[in-house]
Amino acid sequence: LFLFCVVFADNNSTSYIGSFKIGVNVDFCLHTGGNYEYILVEKRGEKKNVGFIQLNRPKALNALCDGLMKEVGQALDAFEADGDVGAVVITGSEKAFAAGADIKEMQNRTFQECYGGNFLAHWNRVSTVKKPVIAAVNGFALGGGCEFAMMCDIIYAGEKAQFGQPEILLGTIPGAGGTQRLTRAVGKSLAMEMVLTGDRIGAQEAKQSGLVSKVYPVDQLVSEAVKCGEKIAANSKLVSAMAKEAVNAAFELTLAEGNRLEKRLFHATFATDDRKEGMTAFVEKRKASFQDN
Amino acid sequence: MPSFIWCKTIQWADWSISLAYSILALCLTSLTYNNISILCKNRKMMERTGIFHHVCRIKYISPPQTAGGGSASFCHVLVHGQHQQIRTDRRRARAASCSRSNFSDVQSAVMAFLCRSAASLLKPYRAAPAVLSAARLYSSGGNYEYILVEKRGEKKNVGFIQLNRPKALNALCDGLMKEVGQALDAFEADGDVGAVVITGSEKAFAAGADIKEMQNRTFQECYGGNFLAHWNRVSTVKKPVIAAVNGFALGGGCEFAMMCDIIYAGEKAQFGQPEILLGTIPGAGGTQRLTRAVGKSLAMEMVLTGDRIGAQEAKQSGLVSKVYPVDQLVSEAVKCGEKIAANSKLVSAMAKEAVNAAFELTLAEGNRLEKRLFHATFATDDRKEGMTAFVEKRKASFQDN
User: Fold this and answer.
1) Which UniProt keywords apply (chain A) (predicted)?
2) How would you class B28 by CB atoms within 10 Å of its CB: exposed for 0-12, middle for 13-18, buried for 19 or more?
3) pLDDT at residue B69 is higher than 90
4) Superfamily of domain covering A237-284
5) Disulfide-capable partner of A171 in A179, B146, B192, B382 (CB 3.0 to 4.6 Å)?
6) Which CB contacts under 8 angstroms, 24+ apart, belong to A110-113?
């Protein structure tokens, strides 16, 4: 049992030496889908290098409640710590990715509770993950669900996907980045229209406007997203994190400063073994073998 | 029917003033903006002052407006067919500055006095029926030279502004932009209106700024006079504005459309920034908004070559959000306005502010602003009503509170 603990500890970057059997089991369960109330968690791909999170509140059309977002945060923490996982895919059901935030939870809140309790503070956990995250959106991604998808790095949509920000119809506004990310993605006119009328757009229009990058048939969406995750996971995790940081900085910095950050990160890749391995493999016309170092 | 006000004396004794005041009040409340002839009885005095020769026909008195937000207020008065602008605030009444005025101080003071009384009568703005009709006239299409203004939609909750300079293909001149600003002010103040639709004709939304107006300007005049300063009024409106673009939206017209929140295009719409062909550059946001909308390559191409894009390309590139057949465009835009006007005006203004902030802030700061506004919606009644209605599966009834 002790050996089992040690072996398991080696597989993670966090140390579980001295953890008890129950702790080990919990840890094992955390990785393989048990112990979550609102989500299903597993690892997919041939090499099991793609973390997979499925939102699982079918009766509520995967409406995002505080508990669900906390569990998603925990699953992401686990995948971040997992040395095997190179990318994460998040999806919902075929009918709905996430049909919004839980209105019943919010209905009776006051401004004081919201501000004082920093409502929605941890909901952006997925936007702070270092590993690339792909949202595979089938069905409805509305309100908080659309915002959640937009926090991910890449969005793949099923043909029947619907995106919208209908908060205005409830007398409120998007609160988790909807007005910001949607506008940057689809432009002012369409974003204003969606936010002010609550109207939805379909998968094709989402692709044309730049919100999603690929549209697949409903039954192929998740497997295609996992394939994309595998492609990403085949690269150096260290350098992928730097690439992702540079792309995200485009929304925070002016062009000149963004270019400077990118250049500094680019120079920094020359301090990594993976960069040398990758370029050498290219020159030698062989497959690179990255060590995330 | 003309009514006569007898100025009993020109000696400006208090009792005569108050008598004239009361007579004027009586006449003004009963007869809206009819001809008021003022005849002064004291002929000698009149001859001395010259008033006798000027039978003042106050044909129209506009509601008092403040110019530039200062303490001065003006009445626009048609006197002898000449448009005079008379200050009505007490301090300056004596030295009433009438533009292009030939009147002596006394005559000016008479007219200022009349205007002041008219102004004080018009102050209970919403109460006096005479005033209401004037306001309705002003905001519902009357009295504009370059635009047509009305309210549309089933519930008359969509403000409608149509640019109306057909001979000039709706070229934007200073006067037109001023009138658009006035109409927008009126709609902002109107509690019924929830959204505004701006359109042109079927042939042209606005084919540019008025070149003849600009042709001989110097840099000094532009900089010193802050040329184009008030042209961005439509971008500061709190209520959502939809531009329904049929035909040409070129140069200033394209910039004007891009200042609006939403653009709907007719199938034959054309967008372009041809200022470069005139030896100048876009000056009202064209280079900024176009680049943010369609991306660098297309924006550079349009701005540097003057080439136009059609409606379909505008939609694909993100400049407009919908394309409709030419004859359906305006009604579809009004439908969109009605959808927006059905929501809470207060919260719509916050939503609009958040979306616009995406162009001013970094993503992190924009998210923070949005979150603060989102938290703030929890202090509104409309938010509670909206969410409660959702949970109770009924239609929400917003009070803009």
Assistant:
1) Acetylation, Fatty acid metabolism, Isomerase, Lipid metabolism, Lyase, Mitochondrion, Transit peptide
2) buried
3) no
4) Lyase 2-enoyl-coa Hydratase, Chain  A, domain 2 (1.10.12.10)
5) B382
6) A110/B378, A110/B379, A111/B375, A111/B376, A111/B378, A111/B379, A113/B378
What's the one-letter identity of residue A211?
A: L
Say if residue B286 is in the same domain as residue B211: yes
| One domain, residues B252 and B353 | no
Catalytic residue check, B341: no
Q: The domain that contains B262 carries what CATH number?
A: 3.90.226.10
Q: How many CB pairs under 8 A join A and B?
A: 168
pLDDT in tens, B372-383: 999 999 999 999
Share of chain B above pLDDT 90, in %: 62
Residues B165 and B297 in one domain: yes
CATH of the domain at B383: 1.10.12.10
Coil, strand or helix at B47: helix
Q: Does B371 lie in the same domain as B274?
A: no
The model carries a pTM of 0.76
Number of domains in chain B: 2
Burial of B130-143, coded b for 16+ CB within 10 Å and e otherwise, reads ebeebbeebbebee
Q: Domain for residue B15, yes or no?
A: no
Residues whose CB falls within 8 Å of the CB of residue B6, separated by 6 or more in sequence, listed in order:
B20, B23, B39, B40, B41
Using CA atoms, how far apart are residues B276 and B115, in angstroms rounded to an integer? 48
Facing A170 at nearest CB: one of B355, B371, B387 = B387
Mean pLDDT of chain B: 79
- B337 and B354 in a single domain? The answer is no
Task: Write out the residue range of the structural domain in which residue B379 sits.
Answer: 345-392
Which chain B residues are Cβ-neighbours of A107 within 8 angstroms? Answer: 384, 387-388, 391
Instruction: Give the residue from A107, A113, A151, A197 with the most B CB atoms within 10 Å of its CB, the best one to mutate.
Output: A197
Establish if B120 belongs to a structural domain: no
CATH of domain A39-234: 3.90.226.10
Residue B38 forms beta bridges with which residues?
B5, B56
Which of A193, A201, A208, A254 to substitute to test the interface with B, most B CBs within 10 Å?
Answer: A193
Q: What ranges do the domains of chain A cover?
A: 39-234, 237-284
Please tell me the distance in Å from A221's CA to the nearest CA on chain B.
24
> pLDDT digit of tens for each residue in chain A (293 aa)?
343 434 443 444 444 444 344 444 444 444 455 689 999 999 999 999 999 999 999 999 999 999 999 999 999 999 999 999 999 999 999 999 999 999 998 999 999 999 998 888 889 999 999 999 999 999 999 999 999 999 999 999 999 999 999 999 999 999 999 999 999 999 999 999 999 999 999 999 999 999 999 999 999 999 999 999 999 999 999 999 999 999 999 999 999 999 999 999 999 999 999 999 999 999 999 999 999 99
**Nearest beta carbon to residue B355 from set A109, A115, A183:** A183
The tokens for A148 are 């959640």
